[in-house]
Amino acid sequence: MKNLLKKWIALFLALSMIVMLPGCGSSQAKAEEENNLEAQKQVEVIKLAGGDWGYPTPYGIYPRGPGSRKMALIFDALVTTDVDGNIIPRLATEWQASEDGLVYTLKLRPDVKWNDGEALTAEDVVFSYDYQKTYIPVNAVDFSKVVSMEATESQTVNITITEPDPKFMSTLTSFNIIPKHVWETVIDPNNYQDAKAVVGTGPYKLTDYSKEHGTYRFEINEEFWGNEPKVKEIKFIPVSEEILAFEQGEVDRISITPDVLDRFESNDEYEVMQYVTSWAYRLYYNMNNESDFANVTFRQALAYAINRDQLVEKIERGAAVPGNPGVLHPTNKLYNGAVEQYANDPQKAEELLDSIGFKDTDGDKIRENDSGEKLSFTLLADEGSTRLAELIKQDLALVGVEVNVQTTDTKSRDARFAAGDFEMVINGSGGGEDLSEVTNVKKSAKATSTTAEVIGYNNPEVDRLYTAQLKATGPEEQLKLSGELQNLVAQELPKLTLYYTNTIAVHRPKVYNGWSADTYHNDARINFVAD
Amino acid sequence: MKWFEYGLTIWIIITLNFLLPRLLPGDPFLIISSDSAQDEEIVLTQEQQDYYKSYYGLDKSMGEQYVAYIGQLAHGDLGYSIYYKEPVSQIIFRRLGWTTFIVVSALVISTGIGVILGSISAWYREKWPDKLLFFQMILLSEIPVFLVGLIILFVFSAWLRLFPLSGAMTHFEDYNSWWDKLFDILNHAFLPIVVLSISQLGGIYLLVRNSMTTVLEKDYLRTAKAKGLNQRRIIFHHALRNALLPVVTRIFLSLGALVGGAILVENVFSYPGLGRLMRECIKVHDYQVVQGIFLVVTIFVLLANFLADTVYKKLDPRVKDCATSQGG
């Protein structure tokens, strides 16, 4: 605090010299972090960009943004998945299905304590189930197949389900166990923001939170049952400009856009990590309102006309993966790389348009469809995807399809998209896709982010293949059936994936080098504790 | 009559506050997209969406919601935030202090400096000090406030590192004394206040300059000059009192503009005031909080108007209770 006075004096000096500023030269002060960190096994403090994402309880977090990852530092589920998607233990160490596949018996990890010192028992698990059925947490668990959950012994839970389901255990990965002794008296969990609300069994405990400033401080939970966390304290502080804050050492890791990559790549002080993600921009057609889109040849022509490689180059400067017409991301286990790719070919697009009688008859460079209506559509986009929409407009103008870009704020776009009030729309969202969104198969009770419905598309063969691959008995059969499904979807193009973005993160290895290569999220638990 | 007018204004504003956010297309519970891979969105199931809608009473008809809203307000209850999961009054109350702090500081600073510079300009009208000031002030008032904010942020925080980059205080700090804490808060607020002052300065300067010029041309001042009275005495004793009348009104009325400026400045500096809150809430369509902020801001502006009226009456004896619109 003492040097504040000095700062003020310096300010007045600076003000008086303001005309000479360009001559001063900026000497980038090197980060004055401790040098001996490599010797330390455990890092004392990591600082990350904050912001208010809600009180980190299953009920207090906000549905958007990184609130759920902060909650995951405190709360544990019974099981979780590793990077390959295998179910691995957390609070449950063993699980066994009965012969008919209807009853699962789970053994809890012995000697687990809540961070207030109480012991975890099977009662807590059963309570969590009952409670979360009554009061749905923000990240709802799909309990539709669960008939009952009972504590048979102090550390054993029996779960009865309605029908055999080999994937049942994976529904438990989002089922966070909450302490009965805290929550049993709580009747308005959404509003419950007491210090006791963050009693969990996870590696960290919350020691400071400010909604107004958007700050969190997590400190190591000495009672934690698992591996020793690699960081003792995680602080989230508000930043206005992430790059500046990072360069000044206010935060220890940020995500950057490709334009500033050079600045960090050429400097030894920093380490850059690039991740492929399944977050993608996708183009949807409204086949109910605009019958032209129901024509598969027309959709194929659009796919040939839209230059996805160029979108990646121009908008993401190469830090993205062009969209796969078969929808699944190339890193998906079920990905079929042999589907039709529709490499950019305006001429081919024009041939296809000609073949279905979509021709320009009045010489205005815009084609008319077979009933003489102009091929002119509005493309709805939010602020973030405006440039993308403009490039698509240019691409389609080349083949005689007129596009009018309409930009709204994100929430309005979402609302119009969901209500079917659009002709074409660009939507960006994350999460792995499983193709259920192009089918009319009844969706699971729990929606996922990418199940934005394709409006007006119906293909029984797609539905059949989708259901068949879900019920496949072995991985090989699933791969084969899903491959067929992707082939068909790539032929039919009910929606067009434009590109999947890559995420680039920078950190200072000197401060902390334990960042996971498997997730680009700064605040994901995997960065600080190994499972 | 006056009270009836204020009452009517408040009612109209409450009704608009209620309607406007609801006319926004979009739904706070519908999540089908995210901004980037950094964002993780939890999609609410239909069941959850319905549950939350009834929890917040949004499943009722507009009429019912309106009646409920008015009923709540009558009890001083601003409602419950959808996004922040907290009573709106609590959220606003915590943020209000920060905004009031920078807005009032900026108001005092910009008025003080504006009056002095405006008077100087008027006295030296058409001479070089006036021309120089005039040019500079016009320039300053024409640069958008967020741009001024960004430039100042880059120069003083990022480059010279004299001030913190963001926030209202250092976090997780154990202060040795209240003095340290105060200093820390001032240190954080300094740049936002400077930027906000700059944004207001031009307007006040121009007003004082014009008003002063008109007053200086009045006969009684010509007489004063002719009598050879001291320059400073003429300006600050005789002229300023009369020239300040429109400035007083302006100060109160500029509160609205200042709050508008504060929205931008708070966002540039990540300052945790109402402006930043407003932006967050509009983005997530949190009707309750948006309504609450509008209402609080409206009440403040009305209060400022009321004060302007009162003060004006005190300063200008020509304006009597019955003659309402003469002076303005």
UniProtKB/TrEMBL annotation, chain A:
Entry-linked Pfam families: SBP_bac_5
GO cellular component: ATP-binding cassette (ABC) transporter complex; periplasmic space
Residue runs in coiled coils: none
Keyword tRNA-binding: no
Secretion signal span: 1-31
SUPFAM superfamilies for this protein: Periplasmic binding protein-like II
Domain Solute-binding protein family: 87-432
Stored InterPro entries: Peptide/Ni-bd, SBP_5, SBP_5_dom
GO molecular function: peptide transmembrane transporter activity
Keywords for the protein's UniProt record, in alphabetical order: Signal
GO biological process: peptide transport
Protein's name in the database: Gluthation ABC transport system substrate binding protein GsiB
The organism of origin for this protein: Acetobacterium woodii (strain ATCC 29683 / DSM 1030 / JCM 2381 / KCTC 1655 / WB1)
Gene (UniProt): gsiB
From TrEMBL, chain B:
Membrane topology classification: Multi-pass membrane protein
Domain of life: Bacteria
Keywords: Membrane, Transmembrane, Transmembrane helix, Transport
Domain ABC transmembrane type-1: 96-308
Record-level GO cellular component terms: plasma membrane
Database matches in PROSITE patterns: ABC_TM1
Compartments where found: Cell membrane; Membrane
Biological processes annotated in GO: transmembrane transport
Regions crossing the membrane: 6-24, 96-120, 132-160, 185-208, 243-269, 289-308
InterPro entries for the chain: MetI-like, MetI-like_sf
Family to which the UniProt record says this protein belongs: Belongs to the binding-protein-dependent transport system permease family.
Designated name of the protein: Gluthation ABC transport system permease protein GsiC
Organism field: Acetobacterium woodii (strain ATCC 29683 / DSM 1030 / JCM 2381 / KCTC 1655 / WB1)
